[in-house]
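task queued by scheduler; priority normal; single chain, no ligands, no partner chains; default sampling; output format set to structure tokens
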Amino acid sequence: MKTFFTQTQAARSAAPLFRASLAAMVLVAAGLTMMPAAQAVTIATVDVPEQQTVAGQTLALNGAGLRQRFVFHVYVAALYRAQPTTDVQAILDSQEPQMLQLTLLRDINSKALTDALNEGLKANNSEAELAAMADTIKHFETFMATGGEGASGDQVRIDFQQGKVSVSFKGKALGEVSDPRFATALLKVWLGPVPAQESLKQALLGQKSAAN
């Protein structure tokens, strides 16, 4: 009888330790994907704020970095989310508001920008996936073509919310598509297996120095 009570007391004593250890494991696992919001940063003379607002919701800076092509600085990209994370799939699958802002560092017209986005779409999505989104992509290309000329300092803002993608250029709304498949496909341009630039992908995930 004494042995039974001794074992029971030991089990009761161990229970809180087990729960504490389990809780610690959960926190560690969460820490692998969730992270504190990034702080405001300046990249290539572009001031990237800590927060932005989409659909009335305040989003925090997930990460930001520089897009380069050869020796040229093309734009600074910044990704905003309600809860910063390093989990690519969570970003691609999210139905919550997210925003990607591109601040141009050189003159570029909307056609050149659209062509670059199309290259990224083709690099990160299968022919079957692109074919299934053909009408959506055509609509996207049509309203993107209305953006006209862009100069250093101009911004492209891409809002993602519940499968909708809204684009504005130089503060002017260009258009919107409502297709969750396209929202994911477009994010893959920067975060997919063949991103526009690997170091930029890591920077947007907050895993690399923003200045690259």
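post-processing summary
- Residues 1-8, 13-32 have pLDDT under 50 and may be disordered.
- Residues 2-31 form the longest helix (30 residues).
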